[in-house]
Amino acid sequence: MKASWDIFCSVVDNFGDVGVTFRLARQLVAEHHLQVRLWIDDLNAFARLCPGADPLADQQVQDGVIVCRWPKEWSKTWQPVDLPDVVVEAFACRLPPDYIEAMHGAEKRPLWFNLEYLSAEDWVSGCHGLPSIQSSGLRKYFFFPGFTEKTGGLLREAGLIEKRQAFQVNPAARHSFLRRLNIMPHAEARLMSLFAYEHAGLGSWLDCLAQADRKTHLLVPEGRILGDVQRWLGVEELKAGAVHGRDALTIQVLPFVRQEDYDQLLWCCDFNVVRGEDSFVRAQWAGQPLIWHIYEQDDDAHWAKLDAFLELYMAGLSELAQQALTEVWHSWNGGKAMTHGWNALEQHTDELAAHAERWCLEQALQEDLTTALVRFYQSWI
Amino acid sequence: MKTGKELKPGTVIKLENDPWLVQKAEFTKSGRNSAIMKTKLKNLLTGYKTEIVYSADDKLEDVILDRKEATLSFISGDTYTFMDTTDYTMYELNAEDIEAVLPFVEEGMTDVCEAIFFEDRLVSVELPTTIVRTVDYTEGSARGDTSGKVMKPAKLANGTELQVADFIEIGDKIEIDTREGGSYKGRAK
Predict the structure, then answer these.
(1) B82 to each of A32, A330, B92, how far by Cα in Å?
(2) Residue B81 contacts A, CB cutoff 8 Å
(3) Residue B85 and residue B107: Cα distance in Å, rounded?
(4) What per-residue confidence (pLDDT) applies to A140?
(5) The pTM of the whole model exceeds 0.80
(6) Distance, in angstroms, between B16 CA and closest chain A CA?
(7) Which residues form the Elongation factor P C-terminal domain (chain B) (predicted)?
(8) Segment (H or E) for A28
(9) Residue A277, Cβ neighbours under 10 Å: how many?
(10) ipTM
(11) Closest Cα to residue A171, out of A152, A153, A200, A191?
(12) Is the CA virtual torsion A363, A368, A369, A375 positive or negative?
């Protein structure tokens, strides 16, 4: 009999939570042949990532995953469900009290994971896999994604890197994919993608691209950065499908695309600007240079995370490339002008590209997050 | 009840009906409005030790403990003997039991500590929030800074290292805030 998993996802203000949990759920089904229910409290966010989904359905099956509405008024509307073998509360979301009560009273209690946020900080390896004994006596285990073998690793489907590499050396596949999204860059243009939070210094970066010797075709999936792009362009409206040229820079706004398409978009680009957690990891699997727009936290706690990642990521880069990359990432995340840092970074394009591929392959040597969770469960039983 | 964020060395919580002493607690922001507390716990009935993680807002049943004033009498190897200041009873603790405050415990200190008892047994000791210690070694002032914003490393008599203001010299007495691992507060008056 298949082991059953429940994953709980509370969508706070972006698509990262639902993006990560849906990827995890799909991988558990496809590669580990498990029965998975994914509880989501905002199916509208889910429907944007998974265009075939019905945001009004209480229950639906998508890619083999049973996607359930997590009702706000859980205790009033919830009917007891069969408890699974494993429960995952994603990103410290809180399980419904009735559900916890049911776990407490169960003859066979499920394994309970708190799947935490991604961080490269040192302390993560010291907390990964540790239990948390609740006052009820229930135990939950903290599981940390991460970049070293002392963490849970990163979400990565089987064969992902091989698939990506095959795509990148196949111009016909690339051309066909771009055509499907109505992307027709100039033959000499480099392709870049921009998926970020609001950025006060964005204009200076777009200025750099517009004034560069080389043409750039910048793809901007719909999202929070669009307002800043619109202001720079000086247009009244900016919607999916719009294409605007300014000197060497062409900006094209794309509709929000499903996860598989976003992956291929990252693979097509020579440089990607990504945000949050899900797109950040996917950009690393693309094997291309990137800027990470990290989620801003209270007390500026995100800076330590950013620098911890940079320290790991930049090992092996030349000192000048390290300086330029650090300046660019810091400027971007600090909302500062990008001109000096970006121009310096442009001097290291080839080195950064080779490094991004090397980093990707190194990370791919580690066990992936889904397999690590499954293995933990197997040891636990 | 205590929340995960409120756990600190010396707190005793009840887990599965057993009292557990928090020997060490490290607070970290993990992600978007989320934080965790990594703790080192000791079961006061069995002596078993373990590491446990809590979310900052986890609710835990704490155990009401007796507290008395005590001072350090002497140190012998890993054993620290404290004396109840009211009835002069001597109590012993291992270094591990006071791991969190150990960096600021030194022979001859006169601080009046708070001794924590569980069922008449001394289980831990808390130092006052502010203590005064003498700087045993530090480099001379590099930049002549008098603002107190430029910091440099210094060593206390027991070998503990901490950052102090640049103008502090060997033999100076400094105030230390003992919360959250201990930090330099200023030159003692």
Answers:
(1) 57, 51, 6
(2) no
(3) 17
(4) 94
(5) yes
(6) 5
(7) 131-187
(8) helix A16-32
(9) 26
(10) 0.83
(11) A191
(12) negative
